[in-house]
Amino acid sequence: MFKLNTQRTYKYPVTVTVYGEDGAEHTGTFKATFKVLSNGAMRDPAAMDTPMLDLVLVGVEGIEVPGEDGQALQGKALLDALKDDPAVSMALVAAYQESIGKKNRARI
Question: In the 3-class helix/strand/coil scheme, how is 65-90 assigned residue by residue?
Fold first, then answer.
């Protein structure tokens, strides 16, 4: 029998490309921990005004963001910095959506 944990979290690789001051591309990969958001939770009117990453992003590993003091951000400060960066937030959303649909698409 298949048991479904509807409160599950999982790690998934995220690849992001950013451009440096010299115009060169810099690509890196890190892992994000996502929680599965039910369809009902997505349709909840209270969730409509909440950015998706605030609902599904639980943690990250393998990426470092220095704070204003030069020390690596951690916890909520790290997640907020990643969600605030346009390239990283787009990569996180794409990774989440890919992770949900990738293996469950019908093959033609």
Answer: CECCCCCECCHHHHHHHHHHCHHHHH
pTM of structure: 0.87
Task: Give the model confidence (pLDDT) of 68-93 as tens digits.
Answer: 999 999 999 999 999 999 999 999 99
pLDDT digits 0-9 by tens, 8-66:
899 999 999 999 899 999 999 999 999 998 888 888 887 788 899 999 999 999 999 99
CA distance 103 to 98: 9
Coil, helix or strand at residue 91: helix
* Coil/strand/helix, residue 107: coil
What are the C-alpha distances in Å from 8 to residues 4, 21, 30, 93, 99? Answer: 9, 40, 20, 18, 13
Amino acid symbol at 45: P
Domain spans of the chain, in order of start: 9-102
